[in-house]
Amino acid sequence: MGRKLLFEHITKPGIRGLEGYRANGGYRSVEKALRTLSPEAVLEEVKKSGLRGRGGAGFPTGMKWSFLAKPEGVPRYLVVNADESEPGTFKDRYLMERIPHLLVEGMITSSFALGANTSYVYVRGEYFYVARILEQAIAEARAAGWLGKNILGSGFDHDIHVQVGAGAYICGEETALLESLEGKRGNPRIKPPFPAVKGLYDCPTVVNNVETIAAVVPIVNEGGEEYAKIGIGRSTGTKLISAGGNIKRPGVYEIDLGITCDEFINSDEYCGGVDGRAFKAVVPGGSSVPIVPYELFLKTPTGEDRLMTYESLSDGGFAQGTMLGSGGFYAYNDAQCIVRSTWNHARFYHHESCGQCSPCREGTGWMEKVLHRLEHGEGRMEDIELLWDIQRKIEGNTICPLGDAAAWPVASAIRHFRDEFEYHVTHREKVKDPKHFAREPFRKSAKFATA
Amino acid sequence: MSARTRPITTTEGTKPFSFSEAGLAECRALMARYPKDRTKSALIPILHVAQAENDGWLSVNAMDAVAHIMGLRHIEVYEVASFYSMFNLHPVGTYVLDVCRTTPCMLRGSDDLIHHLEKKLGVHAGETTKDGMFTLKAVECLGSCGSGPMLQCGAGYHEDLTIEKVDALIDELRARNSRTNYTDR
To answer: Which tens digits make up the pLDDT trace of A50-103?
Structure first.
């Protein structure tokens, strides 16, 4: 069992309140940073830790911070992305709900490093009750002097505000989030300029995921080098994985990056294996990452054990690999229909497309329509090529990555499960029943006759 | 047209709207969170307050009142309200049931839950029951993927639902008969 850096104290009584949090060593990173370190030294520790953005992109956090422009007399902002809306992902909700002061502490320490006197945490609107928990924690921290003017006599001023969204997946994209935070529609901005130069209110801004900012706390407490000792290669530290789908033990797990995928999905410490049937496929990092057959999730194309790291999960490229993404993990058993799931994904992206770029606005709706007819027994064989063609024309042709995210689940489903798509054309009557595969699981090797 | 642009209604709900004193105080506190020349940032949180004070939806009168207190043009409010799916642009029931239908919940049985609720309430997803008690919405991922199928009603998440559990919930809500909002404390 690996070390828990974020969740070590999560089950302690009273950990949600300031008193309980302090009693378990809370706010030490603020004391250490403000009393003994310079902002540059904090940045140095984050760089040494190898921490990578935990929202999905995996960009090195220290590097992102070092890009922050610092013009004289212009405020800088830290904005925490708590929009968590990547299907399969619920780790940040769990963290904020159970141990809200960890995020508040991380925001103060990080803001000190960035020279930001104000930070915002943008919480998806559906998590209204979580926003209330955060507001309570912020009020407690303010009353105790962890926020406000001249914190710990250091001369550093800081305050945190919570903002709620109102239901829009796209606001998890950092520039759409900034638009929304400014009170506008969540339309992503054209980059450059990047937020580090022109972000919130045209000021230099760092946007980081909740888990990323929480990880700054153990990094500052124990040092970046200690943190980097956990993990393998460029995948350092621990990662929260939210696990769902057809597994025995759904939940949020803090893993050491580098455990095997087999251990994660089958051991009783984590997912506990399949829920009574057989595993069919896995989406390891949120709905946007490629879906892979179970066997390919366990082993790399060269037959080595696949590991829960950024690199190992993407080993084999898009043809045979996938991505760690946000850690929104869900597994399929053999009762599930890949075409139905792909249609469901496509409908999601169509619903969530902001509408700015035509390839995404029109392409997501088109894919949804084609997948709908395939799944409902009205498809044609050429629909499979059509879907392939549409997704190719979306990918890379949009302002933000939502287009890619809509294309990849379709591409990977066709790549790995093409015969199941064909079956939907040859067995139209059977597939009209959405529970068909629960009775007759689809077997890849089966030679199917025209129904 | 993008799924993100929904028409507002000018024919329903012509009843006048004004914020309560407590609501107005909350709006002012929300605007104070941002720099003085950037109070537009409070628009989404304020629309939530307005929706809660207008029977769970945003009429043109309610949106115009928001524009008025924030010093915005009407269109700046309409274009934002019509983008975000938690803002209801038509009248809704006493309870809005947001049932998650996205893939991780689908894997755990959300299709069955939605069908059951449609049958039980006698409406399709997107509609309100004749007695005005329930609006059933099928919505996208609510971040409860390990505890699906689930639904949101007001600020509350109801997770790991079974047919029995959701039936009991409906009975309980019906007996209570008091509006829930996302902003409920």
So the answer is: 999 999 999 999 999 999 999 999 999 999 999 999 999 999 999 999 999 999
Q: Give the pLDDT of residue A433.
A: 93
Same fold, B1-89 and B95-176: no
Query: B169 CB contacts (<8 Å, ≥6 apart)?
Result: B153, B158, B161
**pLDDT at position A450 over 60:** no
Task: Report whether pLDDT(B4) > 90.
Answer: no
Residue B36 pLDDT exceeds 90: yes
Dist CA B150 CA B158 (whole Å): 6
Homologous superfamily of the A18-228 domain (CATH): NADH-ubiquinone oxidoreductase 51kDa subunit (3.40.50.11540)
Task: Give dist(CA B64, CA B78) in Å, integer.
Answer: 9
Tokens at A180, concatenated: 């929304």
Above pLDDT 90, what percent of chain A?
97
What is the CATH number assigned to the segment(s) B95-176? 3.40.30.10
Give domain limits for chain B: 1-89, 95-176
H-helix segments, A115-209: 128-143, 174-181
Mutate: best of A81, A90, A358, partner B, most B CBs <10 A: A90
C-alpha span between A243 and A384 (Å, rounded): 30
CATH 1.20.1440.230 fits A338-439, yes or no: yes
For B84, the closest of A166, A245, A332 (CB atoms) is A166
Best mutation target, B77, B82, B103, to test chain A (most A CBs within 10 A): B103
Domain segments of chain A: what residues? 18-228, 232-333, 338-439
From residue B96, give the alpha-carbon distance in Å to each of A34, A132, A368, B75, B157. 47, 21, 26, 26, 12
Query: What is the chain B residue with the closest CA to A83?
Result: B143
Architecture of the structural domain at A232-333:
Roll (3.10)
3-state secondary structure A17-28: CHHHHHHCCCCH
pLDDT over 60 (residue B43): yes
Q: Is the pLDDT of residue B91 over 90?
A: yes
A413/A364 Cα distance (integer angstroms): 15
Is the fold of A18-228 the same as that of A232-333? no
Question: Which of the four pLDDT bands, split at 50, 70 and 90, describes residue A445?
Answer: low
Whole-number pLDDT of residue A1: 59
With b for 16 or more beta-carbon neighbours within 10 A and e for fewer, the A355-388 pattern comes to bbbebbbbbbbbbbebbbebbbbebeeebbeebb
CATH code given to domain B1-89: 1.10.10.1590
Residue type, B21: E
A438: chain B residues, CB-CB within 8 Å? none
Beta strand spans in B4-150 (E): 95-100, 134-139
CB–CB of A183 and B142 under 8 A?
Answer: no
> Could B107 and A129 be called an inter-chain contact, meaning their C-beta atoms sit closer than 8 Å?
no
| Closest CA of chain B from A303, distance in Å | 29
Opening angle at CA A37, ends A216 and A218, nearest 5: 25
Out of B104, B157, B183, closest to residue A88 by CB? B104
Average pLDDT over residues B158-185: 97
Q: Tell me the ipTM for this assembly.
A: 0.96
